[in-house]
Design goal:
It is built from no helices and 11 strands. It is globular and about 40 Å long. With 122 residues, it is mostly beta strands. A hairpin with a 6-residue loop joins strand 5 and strand 6. Helix content is 0%, strand content 52%.
Length: 122
């Protein structure tokens, strides 16, 4: 059983930056592909980006390409989401997830964190 804890969310002005972290425990972190998803009020949870077990492969949703970067440090059991040039429409609860493949579908992920709130003011 893998436990995931997100941190780093907060309130930021449009154009600003935040770095989210996802700390894993209770399993072998390097065995898992990891993903970031987000959910805004009244909307479905959507894919943000994902990374393979070794960090060698990444995918991003079109709406974050060029602005967000995913990385991971297996030695620290941690994944990151660097978010730059934030927009008000990026406001959501951000979740990290662990699964067997770095796919875009939420159903490919087995373990989920509780989420961290990101709010971007205009």
């Amino acid at each position: 059983q893998v436990q995931l804890v997100e941190s780093g969310g907060g309130l930021v002005q449009a154009g600003g930056s935040l770095r989210l972290s996802c700390a894993a425990s209770g399993g072998t972190f390097s065995n898992y592909a990891m993903g970031w998803f987000r959910q805004a009020p009244g909307k479905e949870r959507e894919f943000v980006g994902s990374i393979s077990w070794d960090g060698g492969m990444k995918q991003y949703a079109d709406f974050v390409k060029g602005r967000f970067t995913i990385s991971r440090e297996n030695a620290k059991n941690t994944m990151y989401l660097q978010m730059n040039s934030l927009k008000p429409e990026d406001t959501a609860v951000y979740y990290c997830a662990a699964g067997s493949s770095y796919r875009t579908s939420r159903y490919a992920y087995i373990y989920w964190g509780q989420g961290t709130q990101v709010a971007v003011s205009s």
